[in-house]
Automatic annotation (TrEMBL):
Region: Disordered, residue numbers: 1-29
Domain G-protein coupled receptors family 1 profile: from-to ranges: 53-316
Transmembrane helix among keywords: yes
Listed name of the protein: Putative galanin receptor type 1-like
Source organism superkingdom: Eukaryota
SUPFAM superfamilies to which the protein is assigned, alphabetical: Family A G protein-coupled receptor-like
Family per record: Belongs to the G-protein coupled receptor 1 family.
Organism: Scophthalmus maximus
Amino acid sequence: MLLLLPPGNESSGPADLPPANRSEGAGGGGGSGSEAVVVPVVFGLIFVVGLVGNSLVMVVIGRMRCGGGGGGGAVGMRSGSPTNIFILNLSVADLSFLLLCVPFQATIYSLPQWVFGGFVCKVGHYFSSVCMLVSIFTLVAMSADRYVAVVHSKRSACVRSRRNALAAVCVIWTASLLCSVPVAQHQVLTRHPAAPNSTFCWEMWTGASRAGYRVTIVLVGYLLPLLLISCCYARVLYHLHKKMKNMSKKSECAKRKTAQTVLLVVAAFTICWMPHHIIAMWVEFGSFPLTDASFAFRIVSHCLSYGNSCVNPVLYAFLSENFRKACRQVFTCRFLFPPLPRDTASRVRLEIFSTSHV
């Protein structure tokens, strides 16, 4: 059976619909197959995991900033560090991406038409694109921050300031808002001749403008960030490797753990976003087949891109021993997070790849 490719940001619009499927709803994407149940359930699991993980990160940093959790002022002061500002911004972007994208995308697979109106069609897709880019650009900023902190630690104080971090966050959001404007301009409600009583939320472009925009997004939103992240962390690993010769066993173990985390960060970004951009380029410059296999590939690409917003809190927060200590400090439940000794709590710092480990 030839499955219908649900319309989304990778589809070309009504022209993409295969003739064999136009009698089945012409692009609604859902309703009859098992995917109408399975896909929303999978998306729901991703949504819940990402919601809990990112919310927990935001709560921990927020409570620390307010002096919550019994840790005193020392912890609250460190909550405004550049690293924590970027972690908080990443969690906000990832949480917003999940909230704005996953529920609507799930309905595309489960409902026969778009039911949320023209405003949500434009604004929802626009801010989904914005949050996606903010998340990616923040990952780049965090890798640059780690590079400066580790490789140029003696001169990092003047660069890694709270003011500069906040300025970087403002630049990230501004650039993402501007880069996503074409999405809002071209996302419209439309109908298909085979389903004149149904409406669909599609991107409608003219000429070669869409191809140019797609290529730009792949370059700016994937290839260039991947290159920058890889270069920054490669320099970090090289710097750590050079310093391993004259260090204690404990420090060497910490360095190796940092190296493993760095590799996980790069691998997660590469794997989670590669299928999404492969499909975008395939649709644009090739002939994307409408088969069961391609349909499954598209679903996997969605799950991986959404999954990146679930993985980020784990990689950038929960793998950090200091963050886990902060959780114990903020959530003083004696069953899950026994409270820290007072002298230990005063030294907790929410820093990943801490410069004390290099």
